[in-house]
Amino acid sequence: MTTSQPVVIVGAGPSGTAAAAQLGKFGIKSIIIDEAPKIGGVIYRGPFRDSDDLPHLDDNLKRAMSALRTRFSAQKQHIELLTQTRVLGPEGQNKLLLNKLNSLSNLAYQDLILATGCHERSVPFPGWQLPGVMLLGGVQLQIKSGLVKPGTRMALVGTGPLLPLVACQLHKAGVDVVGVYEASQFHKLAKEAIALLNKPKLTLSGLSMMAYLEKHDIPFYYGWGIVDAVGDETLQQISVAPYNECWQADVQNAKTIDVDAIGVGYGFVARSQLAMLLGAQHQYSHVSGYVPILDNWLKSSLENTYIVGDANGLLGADAAICEGQIAAIRIAQKRNKITPKKAAQLAGKVHRKLARIKRFRYGFDRFSARQFGLLELPKDDTVVCRCEQATRSQIDKAIEQGAKDITTLKMRTRIGMGDCQGKTCASYAIDRLQQAGFTHNIGTIQPRFPLDPIPFTLLEDNHETV
Predict the structure, then answer these.
(1) 140 vs 407, which has greater pLDDT?
(2) Domain total in the chain
C-alpha cells in the first residue's frame, strides 16, 4: 500500500462529506460509501424527488443542505462516491466487504474514517408496535424525503430539541399536530441558559420554533409523556400523562387523544456496530450508548481508523462537520501533505469551534437526561425485543434469577439474537440492568458478521475486489 491510496470513508452525512472535502483540499483522494442514493445523511439528504413546493424545509435547513452539496462539489474531482452500498463488515486485514445492489465486493484501505451516524433509541410501551407509532427521526425522514405525510392527526412525545423542530415541519406539511409532550420539566431547561448561549443562533432558532407553535395553537407540554397506544389494526388513540422528575407517569391524571400517528423521540444511540466488528475499543455512555475511545484527532484504538460524527457521541451536524475535518487534517499530516505545525494550527481553530458546540449540546443533554421512570411503561406482556418477542416479564424474571450482565440476559431471554442485532432492545436491557444496581461490567450485545443479511444467491465465490 502507498500513501496515494484513497482514504475510505463510510457514511456520506455531514461528517463523512466534510472529511472528504477537507482531504480534497490537500489533494488526497477518498472513496465515500453510503447506503442511500444520495449524499447528506438522514439530516441533510433532502427530498428524493424534485418539487417546487417544500414548505416544511425551513431556510436554515435549506442553507445547510446547500452548503454540504457545495462543499462536496468543490472537491468532487478527488472523491469517488459509492451510493446504495452497504458495508457488511471487515474481510481480512484492512478490507471491507461491500454489498452494492446485490453484488458483493471487497475494498482495501490504508486509512479508514467511520462516519456511520446513529440510530434511534427505542422505548417500549404498551402498543408501541402498532402501525402509526413511529420514531421521531423516521417521521422527519419521511417528510424530508419527499413530503410524505406520516399521518393526518399526530402527537409528538419524547424529549429534546427535535420535538419542536419536527412539530413545525409537520404543521408546514399540512399535518394536524394536536400536541407536543416533552418529558422533562421546564425549570431544567431554564437552568441551562448559559450553556445555550454558546450557540446563540441555534437558541434563537429554537425560540422562533416555539413562537411558531404558539402562533398556530399547537400546545407544548413540559413534564408530560407517553403512557400507552391503542388501536384495532392501526393506531387510533394514545394516553399521555404528567411525568415526575424521574419520568414516572401519573396515570391517575392521564388523558387520551385520538390520533392516527405519533412520533416518539427519547434520544439516539451511536451506530457502533462496524467499529466494534473491526475491534475498536468502546465504553458506555448514558446519552449515546457504546461509543469508541478516541484521541484528540478522533483516532480510535485501531492504528488507521478514525471515528467521527454521531458514531462517537451525539453532538449534532455542526459538530460532525468539525470532527470530519479534524480527522482529515490528521491524515494529511500523516501523509506529509502538511507539517505538524500547520496541522496543529488548522485543527486548533476547528477544535475551538467544536468546544463551543459541545458546551451547547451538553446543556441539552442535561435537560433531556433519560430517567428510569421510562422503564416502568411496559406491562408484563409488552414485547421489548421485537425480533425474538421477548417480553418485559421475561427480562425481569431473568434479572431476579441472577442475570447481572447483557450476555447472561441474552442467553436467558434471547434478546439481541435477531436480525437487528440488538439495535431495538439493547438500550432497554442495559437501562434495566443498571436500574437493578448492576452498573459495572454489564457488557454489550456484540455485533455479528455480516451486519446485514446476505441473500443466499450471493454466496458464491466470485465477488470482486474494488
Answers:
(1) 407
(2) 3
Q: Select the more confidently predicted residue: 42 or 108.
A: 108
Same domain, 156 and 232: yes
| Dist. CA 40–CA 428, nearest whole Å | 30
pLDDT band at 203 (very low <50, low <70, confident <90, very high): confident
CB atoms within 10 A of CB 80: 14
End residue of a domain, out of 218, 248, 266: 266
Same domain, yes or no: 262 and 155: yes
Residue with the larger pLDDT of the pair 206 and 4: 206
CATH of residue 142's domain is 3.50.50.60
Q: Indicate whether 111 and 134 sit together in one domain.
A: no
CB 84, CB 92: distance < 8 Å: no
338, 354, 389 — which closes off a domain? 338
Average pLDDT along the chain = 91
pLDDT-based confidence at residue 465 (cuts at 50, 70, 90): low
201 belongs to a structural domain: yes
Q: Is the pLDDT of residue 31 over 50?
A: yes
- pLDDT above 90: residue 34: yes
CB-based contact 98:466 (threshold 8 Å): yes
Domain of residue 231 covers 122-266
Residue 371 in any domain: the answer is no
pTM of the model: 0.93
- What pLDDT is stored for residue 456 in this prediction? 77
Q: Are residues 213 and 331 in the same domain?
A: no
Find all residues with CB under 8 Å of 328, minimum gap 6, and list them: 7, 18, 19, 20, 22, 23, 26, 28, 113
Q: Is there a single domain that holds both residue 166 and residue 251?
A: yes
260 and 300 together in one domain: no
